[in-house]
Amino acid sequence: MSQPSKDLFKDIVSHCKEYGFVFPSSEIYDGLGAVYDYGPNGVLLKNNIKEYWWKSMVQMHDNIVGIDAAIFMHPKTWKVSGHIDAFSDPLIDNKDSKKRYRADVLIEDHMQKIEDKIDKEVEKAFKKFGDSFDEALYRQTNPRVLENRAKIDQIQEAFRIALENSDLDGLKKIIEDCEIVCPISGSRNWTDVRQFNLMFKTQMGSVADDSDAIYLRPETAQGIFVNFLNVVNTSRQRIPFGIAQIGKAFRNEIVARQFIFRMREFEQMELQFFVRPGEEVKWYEYWKETRMKWHQKLGIDASKYKFHDHLKLAHYAKAALDIEFDFPFGFKELEGVHSRGDFDLKQHQEHSGKKIQYFDPELNQSYIPNVVETSVGLDRMFLAVMSSALQEEIIDNDPNNTRTVMKIHPVLAPVKVAVLPLMKKDGLPEKAHEIFKLLKLEFQAQYDEKDAIGKRYRRQDAIGTPYCITVDHQSLEDQTVTIRERDSMSQERIHIDQVLEIVRARVSWNTILA
Ligand code: GAP
Q1: Residue 448 Cβ contacting ligand 1 at under 6 Å
Q2: CA–CA dist 3, 501 (Å, integer)
Q3: Domain 88-197 class?
Q4: Are the CB atoms for 276 and 239 separated by under 8 Å?
Q5: Domain residue spans in the chain?
Q6: pLDDT tens digits, residue range 423-434?
Q7: Who is most buried in 93, 101, 118, 138, counting CB within 10 A?
Q8: SS3 34
């Protein structure tokens, strides 16, 4: 029986540290804000998520090919893509604390506080009225709930208008009207709102001249656009087709918080799918559904995901939505699906002087294709998987007997199988090593002989290992071992020859790609 954690988010962060999944970057120097390193188990899980994405997108689609473009790109790329002029966040400073905030986040947090007040009101009423409580009716009729709901609607509408018109004064007015205070100083002594570009800038070569400014890419997508012609000319793909890429991206996020949810250095898994002009709506719908199915195949409860249409579109987008995930701190963006039109290719054609067009043999005409993009953050995927997998379980209805288990999909599990000699003597380690040698040819396997067997099982549960193989004295006599399954904790005696097949059936990519 699993029991809900009181503070799942804190538990995840400390579990990640304790079991070698994620560490703060340069921790011996007290860390670096919003930058993280992946440890021995973390890198295995991260690689498995990448592999799941790559196999689903590139291997399973005949009309998608991959690339791996450089992080540094010609500086013109970012001027042309609109990132130098428009890739910014609205910032506001508190003059007393000297702290800087994202104006939109201050407003969103304020609305969330009112939402929390409503929930508290409902919770109080539930306690008062018990089972006879009609929550829906209460939410529709209670004056205090209605008053707070009206407040949220009013702010939401002003917020929408300000965002749509990029009206920075409008954002400041909402902050003033809502009497939002600085969380540090408690004062309302705010500067004006201004735009702050999110790209990291550096210098290439020996001349410190602004014309040589180089940016760390804020999205991997542009590496795909500038290689469009190279791929068309070398891969014999016909439209509709896609180019996929996994790689690092960098953003100088101002509000960098919530662990690996919002980082300054992160990884994206992006697809640019090139289609005939006029067919983008059809493909937008196709990728919206396909990407949702990809997430749900991991066996995570479907109620944990929802679509969210964008209020304000990025400078390149014609239509956009998020696939949101119910993180421990609420529903937030996990993946973006964007209809980018012909914006990027057209811009690159105009400013590079190269004809970036596709000759469509069926239509006997050339055109600039339209693009549907899917973009999922690898680190956010990691956090989503972690937060749905990590559980505290009570065993045999005994509250004093608990285990921490990561019920992660077996194909994503960092370690697929652990081999454990019951004792460190009598030839058991030698026999276990024989089996371990065989297994590691095919799977990420682990050998462990330290501590009592129960403790070793718990260690494997905590990192999500689907199977443990225990070698005991009987193994030496009849070539059998026990195999323990992570979720049910059931143990079965099997012949050593069966081990490979049983593990393979559970952890092979077929189970999820088919
Ligand atoms: N090429 C389109 C693009 O970059 P985006 O919505 O800005 O679109 C796509 O980013 C995805 O990248 C997001 O859905 C999120 O998963 C991830 N992402 C964006 N910023 C991030 C950050 N600071 N830290 C971690 N992941 C981030």
Answers
A1: no
A2: 33
A3: alpha beta
A4: yes
A5: 42-71+198-407, 88-197, 410-513
A6: 999 999 999 999
A7: 101
A8: coil
CATH 3.30.930.10 matches 42-71+198-407: yes
CA distance 200 to 266: 13
* Ligand 1 pocket residue status of 267, Cβ below 6 Å: no
376 lines ligand 1 (CB under 6 A): yes
Q: pLDDT digit string (tens) for 357-416?
A: 999 999 999 999 999 999 999 999 999 999 999 999 999 899 999 999 999 999 999 999
Per-residue pLDDT band for 2 (boundaries 50, 70, 90) equals low
Q: Which tokens belong to 269?
A: 């898994």
CATH topology for 410-513 is Rossmann fold (3.40.50)
- The reported pTM is 0.88
Question: What does the block give as tokens for 94?
Answer: 């508190």
- Distance between Cα 190 and ligand 1 center (Å): 29
Where residue 364 falls (left for φ over 0; alpha for ψ -120 to 50; beta otherwise) is: left
The reply to whether ligand 1 has any atom less than 6 angstroms from the CB of 334 is yes
Best of 88, 318, 375, 382 for a ligand 1 pocket test (most atoms within 8 Å of beta carbon): 375
